[in-house]
Amino acid sequence: MDDILQDAVLLEAILPRALRSLFRHDTSDPLAHLTVAQLRMVRTLRAKDWNAVDLAKDLAMTESAVSQTVKRLEEMGLVERRPDLHDRRVRTIGLSQIGAQLLRERQTLRVERARVALSKLSRLDRQTLIDLLSRLVIDGDSDVEPLALVAELEQALPLVPPLNLDPPKSR
């Protein structure tokens, strides 16, 4: 087995375990009751309102599945259908205030779990990990442009208060 193949096998085994360890099911997660499809939709709607056709394409779902998922999320009060700002005949789908708040609460819990895990690494190791994972996302997803990934990551930052990830200095 060549080195890259061996590393790929290791990565395939390690990444899911690392993600499960960091972001395991937690009953304190305000969105723990959502299905994977519902959660993917809520996270996608975090950035902006979408029309159903584009949302279906982005999530690789049928328009019918998007419609059903939106209906369920609407019944839960997490999303809303709104008139499009440019064309009142078109309805867009966006997070409700409650949906946005619950998503922020969820992210705060998950960021805290990641903070605890990252606190065991040096600053250099943390930066290296983030840089390498970012490169894997950019190199592995032909739809992701480096600047778009940076913009997406920067957009996520304001959702939680800034955290000081440096270990406390001893006096």
From TrEMBL:
PROSITE patterns to which the protein is assigned, alphabetical: HTH_MARR_1, HTH_MARR_2
The UniProt record lists the keyword Transcription: yes
Domain of life: Bacteria
Gene Ontology MF term list: DNA binding; DNA-binding transcription factor activity
Gene3D superfamilies xrefs: Winged helix-like DNA-binding domain superfamily/Winged helix DNA-binding domain
Alphabetized UniProt keyword annotations: DNA-binding, Transcription, Transcription regulation
GO BP terms in the entry: response to stress
Statement: the UniProt record of this protein carries the keyword Transcription: yes
Domain HTH marR-type stretches: 12-138
Name of the protein described by the UniProt record: MarR family transcriptional regulator
Annotated source species: Fimbriimonas ginsengisoli Gsoil 348
